[in-house]
Amino acid sequence: MFFWFLGTSVASVWFVFHDPGMDYRLVMAGSLLPDAVDPWFGGARAFHSVTVAVALLVAVMVATVGKRGLRRRLLALPIGVFLHLVFDGAWAITDTFWWPFTGRFGRHRLPSVQRGAFSLVLEVVGIGLLVWWWRRFGLSDPDRRKELVRRGVLNGAAL
Length: 159
Hints:
about 65% helix, single chain
């Protein structure tokens, strides 16, 4: 799954924060990160645990002490990872989600793979959310699109 995570993450961040200055590139990257990393380790593993998401958040907070602008930009990455856990239903796999507090990992496939054909429905919903986002923020305008690609922000959008 790809579009489901992209669409739900950008829509959620917009509805919660209403922040045109959020780095939406990092939100999207964070929303894809768990499914990009964990397959290398054989399924739903550390990046599908709340522990890694919290550790990433703490790392950003510690690494950016006294650097408010950088902190504001980098916080988008752990936000995206947390949103992945929510929209993937990772919390339903207790031994993985609460790792290492529950002991070791079970033998679980990625939640997005376990859904089978229903994943196609979710992908269509994700595409719909991305189309809404594209239209809502006028990303057909080359200048706005360039700003999104270059800086990750929605500058100039009709907010």
